[in-house]
Amino acid sequence: MSGIVGYLGTKDAVSVLFEGLKTLEYHGYDSVGVAFLNDAALRVYKKADKIAVLEDELNSIEYHSQIGIGHIRLATHGSPVDVNAHPHSDCTGKFAVVHNGIIENSHELRSQLERKGHHFVSDTDSEVLAHLVEDAYEGDLLAALRKALEPVRGSYALVLISEYQPDCLVAARKNNPIIVGLGEGEYFLASDLPALLPFTRDVYFIDEGEFVEITPNNVQVIDSDGNPVAKEVFHVDWDVSVAERGGYPHFMLKEIHEQPQILRNTLGSRIKPSGDDIILNDIKLTPDEIRSFSKIVITACGTSYHAGLVGKHLLEKWARIPVEVELASEFRYRDPLLDPSTLVIVISQSGETSDTLAALKEAREKGCRILAITNVVDSTITRESDEVIYTWAGQEISIASTKAYTAQLLVMYLLALLFAKERGTMTQDEIAVITSALQQVPGWIEEILEQEESLREIAGHYHNCNDFFYLGRGLDYAVAMEGALKLKETSYVHAEAYAAGELKHGPLALITEGVPVVALATQEDLLEKLVSNVRGVKTRGGAVVGVSLGQSDLVDETCDHVFRLPKAPSFVGPLLSVVALQLFAYYMSCARGCDVDMPRNLTKSVTVE
Ligand code: M6R
Predict the structure, then answer these.
(1) What domains, with CATH codes, occur in the chain?
(2) CA nearest to 475, candidates 539, 390, 547
């Protein structure tokens, strides 16, 4: 997640921009940039470097400025190099824009603009915005922005300035936050509250689809139809650390709640609007290469390994290719049977995990093609791989991985569909049925988040228990492993996942009166088998929390507590049930008084063996 700051007032705008941007450094970023009007001439300075480095550079330059925009970027489209940093300008250099979000149809818009003679300098999706405004401008910046955004699909929080109107800042919001700060004779704009708190505590929260125009004596907000909106001033009394967490008590909860937006961004730009094709522009594998692999090996650690287990099910079912999933820490010492016809997929949120990197090197030595799925642009694993798909989840601060996992899962779904298409194992109509369900996932997750209170209550009921079992079959077993890991690391509770059918082969001996068992029941075709395993637990006195897709009499009758996910097709079960398990682990951690975001003995990036 990148960060935006804007300023119009009587102070030195550039100092305000840097001060605001520094409060957003916790987001993580790789580039920084500012644009301001120096005596009505637009100047843009940007760098793939730290804020302090750009600040030093500007300290050695003469300028005078009372209006400007600033941005820190965590790379998604385009690597972290100077030219890809924001602000972006048009061909004339008269407009500059900073943008958070993803422009889904940027390729199409860019081609159209290039055909009209526009010249692009960066690899970013955001640059199209500056060129669209250039085309639309007829003397009114706000009108130009509204017109420019008409053909744009995607998400944005953006702020625009222009030499043509040197006393005006305009902004727009769709699925990405933007906030106006109200000072004495000065105004601020920011993507996040912490950037406003050094200057003011009175703000307007801009709502979906609204536009803002700031001039020296006025803030005008209009809705998407152009009607004025009367905003109420909100007085912020949060301290900075609460503001950094977006008002949530912990980063883990904030990151759980970010999942719908992250998945929406990914789905919008990686599924064709027709729904029958997948766009993974990041990888250069040709259809012939995709058809030529004899098997896939997925290797990763921890939560990323669990995403690989779901990926195996999907790739084997949809693309009919054999897939092995292996813990990277084992793979590296096993002299695995690999040859150049094997595609090796390494999954790593951080892109720096030492075991995963070593497994990658082992595979490379054996001549395999390497595809990395990571969240961090230019991390070591991305540099060592032949192909990279980014998960675009934004920086994950809590040690317990949540949003990075669901983003990894979504990439596995899209990759499996791409392979199915190229290998001819699914028709475009069959793919469209799946993508249409995937597009509903963000909304379904929002429904789960609305019911989080019931998960808090269930956690309250079990928070004194020190041993948990997680059961599932098929895809549910893979998610059970992730649920158990989440509970272990956040709540210091012993939790083990079992394929439900394995229970009778040993673990059932551990089920006695009151032992809690979380049973995942999202796989329709395996439901009866799962319920019969749950009955075995109940007979021994176990206490069962069932997680079902919609209402299920079978689950309701057998379990002590039931958490109902929205009614959805079984194949999206992992993307939904895991959110319930994340919230359960979160509330268990809170109830047990653990350090939610920084569990003992763990680090975010495991760079030692
Ligand atoms: O950065 P990576 O995805 O390579 O990290 C792998 C594991 O260390 C990581 O997923 C770990 O299991 C998390 N703490 C789980 O929440």
Answers:
(1) 3-244 (3.60.20.10), 254-435 (3.40.50.10490), 451-591 (3.40.50.10490)
(2) 547
